[in-house]
Amino acid sequence: MPAEVSILLPIFNGERYLQQCIDSALSQVFENIELIVVDDGSSDSSEEIVRRYLQQDNRIKFFRNQENRGLFAAYNRCLENAQGVFIKPFAQDDLLSEVAVLRMREVLFQDPTISLVASACEIVDSFGRVVLTRNRFPNGRRVSGSDVVRYSLLSLSNWVGEPSTVMFRRKDCRAGFNDEYFHAGDLEMWLRVVENGDLLLLDDSLVQFRMHDESATSTNLAGFLFALDALRLGKEYRNILQDLGESEEHFQKRVVEIAAYQLDHLVRTQSLNVADAIASARKGSRSGDGSLEERRVLDAFIELCFLALRYATFSIGECNRIRSEGDLQCALLNRRLEDLQGSNSWKLTAPLRSVMRSLRG
SS3 string of 127-150? Predict the structure, then answer.
């Protein structure tokens, strides 16, 4: 009998937290699961760890890519081998509450109009200490699929959640993850899934999401690849943006501004420089497979983007300063005008002003 819920776990050099991760998946109260693990070309002991579990639990299916194909391609290989009605993405650094699958599966099983369920989560550091509980809607909320798409495009963020926080039906994921995305392939998938129904946000923290310097999120942000993904999303959803009254040019401007501010934050807080950005982007895009000339062009292009975004940061900041000063001057002038119009001298000279207007006419 096929498992009802398929937990997808792509791994790449994840030995540090992998045992905790797998233990949390296999300890689910809802036991009718399969854990599909795809090793995306690890060079550490990840494969050995998984093979030890294979001998202990027949719910695990293990596959290995001989070379690194990227996170979303690895998720797709998991999907290709999934038999469950419901799909539960997972990540090698994260942990599931023992009732995570039970609670999410319950929502989808009981309400066919919900196509995506997401939970609140605890953000933990490399030592497993909770540093923040992220619960965007403390009382939970149902959001229409169309509103999910619109809000995501307007906010330019994945406010639904990371892969470990969601579950959906296998029939709704169609072609799988778009592996042409660098960082936002999960958000792009969520937007396609909610074309089939609504999103339900649970206020229970069912996942622990780990943030650390080696995480894929940190690497991709350092390479500012998220900006490239945002531009791609803008093209795919240009019709919806137009319905919202936003031109493609204005959307692109917003992407550049957000990228500039994000880069400025990384420069100020993490001392990011051009060399770091090039190294991160190379790692994220696997550009090492190209020719020497292709790598040189890519490096030069990244340097140009880095410098252009730094320049944009200063330009945006200067424009905002001038705008703020202008607003302040306008407010002061309006205040002085109000004071003048309320003064006795203004009232006493009203007849004179009336005569002057008549002479001008």
Answer: CCCEEEEECCCCCCEEECHHHHHH
Distance of CA 144 to the CA centre of its chain: 19
Tell me which long-range contacts 193-197 makes (C-beta under 8 A, separation of at least 24): 193/115, 193/116, 193/168, 194/115, 194/116, 194/145, 194/148, 194/149, 195/115, 195/145, 195/149, 196/115, 196/145, 196/169, 196/172, 197/112, 197/113, 197/114, 197/115, 197/116, 197/145, 197/172
pLDDT value, residue 287: 47
What's the domain count of the chain? 2
3-state DSSP assignment of residue 123 = strand
Please give the average pLDDT of every successive group of 10 residues along the chain, which has 361 residues.
Answer: 94 96 98 97 96 96 94 96 97 97 98 97 91 86 95 90 96 92 93 97 95 62 72 93 91 84 77 76 56 65 70 65 70 75 72 68 60
Enter the DSSP assignment of 287.
G
- Position 182 scores a pLDDT of 84
What's the pLDDT at 201? Answer: 96
Domain residues for 108? 5-212
CA 14 to chain centre: 21
User: What pTM was estimated for this model as a whole?
Assistant: 0.80
Q: What is the pLDDT of residue 321?
A: 63
Residues 130 and 166 in one domain: yes
Percent helix, strand and coil across the chain, each to the nearest 5? 55, 15, 30
pLDDT for the residue 204: 92
Residue 206 CB burial class (10 angstroms; 0-12, 13-18, ≥19):
buried
Q: Say what angle helices 145-155 and 185-193 make with each other, to 10 degrees.
A: 150
Q: Based on the domain organization, do 203 and 227 belong to the same domain?
A: no
Distance in Å from the first CA to the final CA of the chain: 94
